[in-house]
Amino acid sequence: MSDPGYSRQSTIRFYFRVAAVVVLVLAAYFLFVGFRDVVTAGSEPTRFWMLFVGLPLLAVGGWLAMAGWGGAMARYTAGEGLPVARDSLDYLSSGEGLGNLGRTHAVAEPTGGPYCRQCGTRNDAEARFCDSCGASLA
């Protein structure tokens, strides 16, 4: 059985990662130079435009990084978060499951109550009416 995804997925992922690093380094350079020029300019900033180039490059670099490292981040998040969610569901549901999640146990039959005369179902010891058919147990 082959892995799901594209046939050259690892190559594509590698190119996304390299492009993300290159674009993010360029964005950092443009943002640093543009911000430094605005802050330290004596009269008029001349490289203010670099901020307007750096911000979109930062967004593009973030998108490329998500494409390159998104699978690894999703696997890490699932590995860290799902055991906690499973334990929480077990705690909330006392181990019996909640919304078809978690462990489910068969409902135990009552052990000490009377049988119904009409349907033969065993009921709780303090029951006055049958849980199954509703007939009076007294």
From TrEMBL:
<keyword id="KW-0812">Transmembrane</keyword>
<keyword id="KW-0472">Membrane</keyword>
<feature type="domain" description="Zinc-ribbon">
    <location>
        <begin position="115"/>
        <end position="137"/>
    </location>
</feature>
<protein>
    <submittedName>
        <fullName>Zinc ribbon domain-containing protein</fullName>
    </submittedName>
</protein>
<dbReference type="Pfam" id="PF13240">
    <property type="entry name" value="Zn_Ribbon_1"/>
</dbReference>
<feature type="transmembrane region" description="Helical">
    <location>
        <begin position="47"/>
        <end position="66"/>
    </location>
</feature>
<feature type="transmembrane region" description="Helical">
    <location>
        <begin position="14"/>
        <end position="35"/>
    </location>
</feature>
<dbReference type="InterPro" id="IPR026870">
    <property type="entry name" value="Zinc_ribbon_dom"/>
</dbReference>
<keyword id="KW-1133">Transmembrane helix</keyword>
